[in-house]
Structures are given as structure tokens and as C-alpha cells.
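Backbone Fold Data
Goal — C-alpha cells
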Amino acid sequence: MSQFQTTPALLTNGAVQEYAELVGSHHRIYDDLGRADIDAFVHRIGGASEYAVDSESLHVRSPGDFTIFIPHHTSARRDRFTKAHELGHYFLHYLYPKSPGEAKFGRGGRDRAETEANVFASALLMPSEHFKRAHIELDGDMWQLSARFDVSPRAAEVRAEVLNLR
């Protein structure tokens, strides 16, 4: 699968986070504790996920028809983040600019588009109000927070830092 340079949405990180949470709320992906059902969401909006030969990527054939490719060698929590990251590319870099036709997104390093997809993934998986409540309830315990939102402890730490909870 060929890769190309992704044009960033050029939204602020705050706007990306807000957009991700609006997408999640609009599609009702959260349970009462704020945990996102990513697999059901991907399926419901016309996507699929498959194991890749090499690394994670996204292939969009048209709106509502896409495949997320995840590596064979990663954990379930990492796979959730990868799916949310690729959804970031789908919403921010395909649907938001109303891209026509097919598009392919692959790991492109540490450019602005990759940062936007990571910010989107973090906010989608750990919506701010739910995360803040859980942070108080769980006394800031990153292991418990990571279990609550089914993310890595490092992802929970970064989210806490972004939300000024650390």
C-alpha cells in the first residue's frame, strides 16, 4: 500500500479534541463511564479492520467504505489506539476537507497530520469530562485510569497532562 504526505487539517489541538469528542458523542460510542466502543463504531460507519503485513494504515475507498490495517504484533490496547488514530485521519484528513475518491494514510513520522490524528485518538478514547471525573474518583491512579478507558498507562498519563490534571 503506497503512502503519501497527509495534508494537516490545521486545527488547534483544542479544536481537534473538541471535534473528536463531538464525533464520539454524536455516534453514541460511549458507555456510562466514558469508555468508547471503537470496534462497533468502525463497523457502524462502514469501516473494517484487518491485520496488516507491516504497519498500521488506513485505506479509504469512499465515504463510509474504509479499512484500518493494524499490525499482528501489538497489544489489544495499542490496537484500540491505532484504530482511533486512523479514525482521526478519516475524520480530519478525509471527511473534514471533503476529499474526493480514494485516499491512503500511513504512519508518516511526527508531522502535524500525525499529531492531529494522535490528539483525535486520545480525545476519542478518553473524553475530557469522563476522564476528569474518573481521575478524581480513582485518585489519579494511571493504572486504574488506563484500565477504565482501555488504553496504555502512558496514554492515560499524556491525557492527564493535556487536561492539566498532573
Q: What stands out?
A: DSSP finds seven helices and four strands in the chain.
